[in-house]
Amino acid sequence: MRILIAGAGKLGYKLAEAFSNQENSITVMDSNEQALQRVNANLDVLAIKGNAVQIDLLQRANLRNTDLVAAVTSSDEVNIVVCLIAKKLGCKRTAARVRNPEYAKQLDFLKTELGVDYIVNPELETARYIAKYLLKGTVVFIESFADGRVGMLDLGVKNIPELVGKKLRDVNIFDSILVAAVAREGEMIIPHGETRLNDGDTVYLFGRRENLQRFVADYFPSAPRDRRVAKSAMILGGGRSGYYLANRLRQNGVAVKIVEKDEAQCQYLVENLQDVLVIHGDATDSDLLREENFAQMDALVTLTGGDEENLLLALLGQQQGIPLVVAKVSRPNFIPIIEQLGVGRAVNPVLISAGEIIRFAQGGKVASLSLLLDGQAEVIEIIADEEAAVIGRRLAALDLPKGIIVGAIARNNEVIIPDGNAVIQPQDRVIVFCLHKDVPVLGQLFYRRKEGFFRGIWHSQKDSGKYPQD
Q: Over the Cα atoms of the chain, what is R_g?
């Protein structure tokens, strides 16, 4: 596959890292020399210095033979223009990052008239993810697959003291639930019966959604369901994510307060949000938070521009006993640290957006995708192709590497938690946990060999150094 990525900021770098491998030809274009130096130093891709809206530069990139252009610069307008030019020059498909809320009502026009095949909005996707977490009404967030029939939850071992120090083979509370992985000190490991669970571990569980809900109800009886649904929320930071989240929560009957220090942005929020209390002030001002009954909120979401500030404010909310706390972080390697410190949830817009663009690049074969621990592992919902190598064979006969765990198979109205004798059929929705190093093997099993694209697009390496600024 030939892929051109316009913009080498956080999202552009993550996409280049994810797509780059020996079977794909990746070009990254940016006018920022420092950003390109990081790309050159860490990734096996072609880096071109220049403005992506220059037609002569795009012509030299041979767009007629390019399968995908992903425009992810810091400017919405530049991204739209790049996609428009790319389509005119013969590129097959285009994807653009478009953030501005003003464009939200024009997405259909951008797609039909300007040739933008896919639009991703990191702040909107982040807001949707957070809103889903706050409105679920459960102690732990159950992520849904296969139209809600299959669930995955990540659970801190310390939340169930009886697990601490136990070997998995001695644990009997995961009835009809699969323990797919354990995150330990920032590393993802595939467990076995002799794996001993530590206090700081996070376990990833797969199962039928009703089984996971029953598990949560059994082991978290002190938190009734109705108390966990957020009826009031305070959002610290009124940028794009704060705007989208407040609007979504308001539509679901949640009383929302936003604290924003920029006066002009406060005016925008007041003019564009109904029934939301907008407070002009500094989110780090403890007196202000106390005056606004900070500790009485059902939910706290920290969406300021700084990771450290978001972390400290989230920890403050946790100490005040706020039931649901979410922190936004721009550096994915902060996520395991934040959750180990007891913050309810950490979200990263870059990983969310990268997953959406990767899913789009699959052309419908991947129904959903979640990147875990800075891309060390993925949870992928794959629609099984009728000519795939996996069809009609027992899972035990596939000789899967340790890093690939088939967590569930959804077939019609049935959900199967598979064992070695399970057989995948065409059009099954297969939910797979996969370490990034084993994704090429997964592609060889699930797609026809001639397609090739899936086999290595998630090849990645751990981040080194700091992301360049978008």
A: 23
Delimiting residues of CATH 3.30.70.1450 domain(s) in the chain:
355-455
Q: How much of the chain is helix, strand and coil, in % rounded to 5?
A: 40, 25, 35
Query: Confidence class of residue 33 from pLDDT cuts 50, 70 and 90?
Result: very high
Q: Does domain 126-134+229-347 have CATH number 1.10.260.40?
A: no
Cα–Cα–Cα angle for 146, 436, 7, rounded to 5 degrees: 95
Bridge partners for 278 per DSSP = 258
Residue 88, classed as helix, strand or coil, is helix
Residue range 355-455, CATH number: 3.30.70.1450
pTM for the whole structure: 0.74
Q: Write the DSSP assignment of 245-260 as a string of letters.
A: HHHHHHHTT-EEEEEE
Residue range 211-238: average pLDDT? 75
d(CA 35, CA 132): 34
Query: For 453, what's the count of Cα atoms within 13 Å in the CB-facing half-sphere?
Result: 16
Instruction: Decide: 446 and 385 in contact? Cβ < 8 Å.
Output: yes
User: Going along 15-137, which residue ranges are E strands?
Assistant: 25-30, 46-49, 68-71, 93-97, 118-120
CB 79 within 8 A of CB 96: yes
Which class in CATH covers the domain with range 2-120? Answer: alpha beta
pLDDT tens, 56-100?
888 888 899 999 999 999 999 999 999 999 999 999 999 999 998
Locate CATH 3.40.50.720 in the chain: 2-120, 126-134+229-347
Using CA atoms, how far residue 1 sits from 217, 249, 272, 319, in Å, is 47, 40, 43, 49
List, in order, residues 6 or more apart from 211 with CB less than 8 Å away. Answer: 175, 176, 177
20 φ/ψ angles, rounded to the nearest 5 degrees = -75, 125
